[in-house]
Amino acid sequence: MSDQSFASRPTLEAVAARAGVSRATASRVVNGSEGVRAALAERVRRAVDELGYVPNQAARTLVTRRNDAIAVVVAEPETRFFADPFFAQQVRGISKELTAHDNQLVLLLTEGAADYQRVGRYLAGGHVDGALLFSLHDDDSLPMLARRAGVPTVIGGRPGWSDADTLYVDCDNRGGARDAVRHLLGLGRRRIAHIAGPLDQTASVDRLDGFRDVLPDNDPRLTAEGDFTPDGGAKAMAALLERCPDVDAVFAASDVMASGALRMLRTSGRRVPEDVAVIGFDDIVSVSEWTDPPLTTIRQDIEEMGRMMARLLLRTVAAPAANGTETPAPAPIVTPTQLVRRASA
Amino acid sequence: MSDQSFASRPTLEAVAARAGVSRATASRVVNGSEGVRAALAERVRRAVDELGYVPNQAARTLVTRRNDAIAVVVAEPETRFFADPFFAQQVRGISKELTAHDNQLVLLLTEGAADYQRVGRYLAGGHVDGALLFSLHDDDSLPMLARRAGVPTVIGGRPGWSDADTLYVDCDNRGGARDAVRHLLGLGRRRIAHIAGPLDQTASVDRLDGFRDVLPDNDPRLTAEGDFTPDGGAKAMAALLERCPDVDAVFAASDVMASGALRMLRTSGRRVPEDVAVIGFDDIVSVSEWTDPPLTTIRQDIEEMGRMMARLLLRTVAAPAANGTETPAPAPIVTPTQLVRRASA
DNA sequence: CCGGGCGGTGAGAGCGCTCTCATAGACGCT
DNA sequence: AGCGTCTATGAGAGCGCTCTCACCGCCCGG
């Protein structure tokens, strides 16, 4: 209240005056463009320091049409994002990358259809240079919204439709799933079950496909669908146990579901990994390292994926519309996964 | 790429022209001010719809000096925020409140001292109307930074210093701790231990104080310090068990630490709650409902606290500097806690 | 029938910045 | 010495919006 520097934030004009140059020159120095004599540049820089000048972003945006801000849109129905730290990790990666490029992160959480309109308006309003979209279901309208708003977009996770110029970053869900199952096979397990995620999400489908790649003729009763929650994992495990008491291994499509499965196995008196081997997916460390026993899982580098999303988006934003210089067109990114061996399998 | 409405985002001028009014009148309608004849207003609104007009926020900010955006600053060293969903829940509350008031949420994550400078510059740059600060230690310089930048601020959690005009929102840590201990006492427990959080955070200190309020003469060996991680909880529990094998109850300063303690108790062959009763703090549902056994804990309404922070900040921002109308001065908020009984105590 | 008030509207100044374009020197060449 | 060529700098036009202020009718009271 007392300390408002509000009253008189210095303007470029003031800096210029103090340095004895024109506003144009001051601007050039501030923005680091070439061709200002060193002596002058130094004078300007000193003036900036002395005055504590910080450029007014609004004024800048008004003329450059760049916001140096991107939106991170999280479709809330997908409560998974708040139940496990997946989202937080990804945001951290995004934040780091954006910070490195002097961009701001505007967080948009949506809840219900009404919010979609709000987000649509916001994106159309040109407040941000691009958008990162999360947590989409097959029929999600968010990407279309963003496209209609003319805002470059990168999606977290492979979207459910195919479309040449839809950019996304995902891990190799299918390959990771194959690795998981092969690992179980290598352990000598023969009655291998799968707890899938909700099948309206591509990650779930891809992991299921990977499972089937390795075990095409697996007993269909050995597959159950969960919902990416511990509860869902436990229920799926219970169903599996009832249908096939001889199950000797489980590949759960997420660590969180695996933790539920682990609990159910313990309840039913099975030992892990002796009686039933369990393997998860994601390597959410705060889950996988803290289950009992610690979870063998398929690791995806979540934070790095966040970074990549940001990087990809920034590149897309920066790409001149009609590009003469033949930069390679931005393309979706699929990152490798890695088996992390702990105690559960 | 193809669908850029970039080229020609309609301006107020265009709306005015189409509606056959002046820009001033169009502006009045768009901003909902009184005193425009209904017929004209209607014409303007139609023009807005037809053109798909969205106000240019940068231009607006340039003249009004309001951003309709607030920053959420999270000091990262405090990794707790990414290890448990505490932060995510709080952000959700904040987001809801901001959305309801047409404000945007700019997320600033910091990592290391260099980032503080960046944040300081950002705040000083007048990009946001206010800031929400999280995860501060006793000696944190962030609040001073914000104050120097002249940005209204609300802090998440009681800060370590006392200062009449520092606004914060916190739960009644001390009272909650008292309730926890009394509950244990009511269960007939007599060797009650406490696993404290890091004592450079006020939440930890307050909870410890609450513990001591009820048990002023408790054996000092029955108190151990953790670090708000499962690991820390487990280690603290191990130490407690070694020092006082006769311990029959534990109050952990967080659910996450309680989960570690639970694991350690199981490892040591203790039954919960029969041999040792355990109670946590926070009621992070994804932890407390999923430990084995489910955790009795002290609940704080995290999302609501987020809302309150946002509301408090928005009120502060809106408050005219020299206020003639005698609105009650904004004050810190301390919310009540509630014992949630599950199986562990 | 006239003057004052008042509600509705428009003209225009500016918010702080970037960027184009003109200009003033400095320099190399013929 | 004269000319063109550069390079460093400044002047000034806007970006899209809000807001003040002047203005124009209209209504009411006298």
From TrEMBL, chains A, B:
Annotated Rhodanese domain residues: 124-203
CDD domains in the record: HTH_LacI, PBP1_LacI_sugar_binding-like
Stored PROSITE patterns: HTH_LACI_2, RHODANESE_3
Keyword Transcription attached: yes
Superkingdom, taxonomy of origin: Bacteria
Boundaries of every HTH lacI-type domain copy: 10-64
Keyword match Transmembrane: no
Keywords on record: DNA-binding, Transcription, Transcription regulation
MF GO annotations: DNA binding
UniProt name for this protein: LacI family DNA-binding transcriptional regulator
Organism, scientific name: Actinacidiphila polyblastidii
Source lineage: Bacteria, Bacillati, Actinomycetota, Actinomycetes, Kitasatosporales
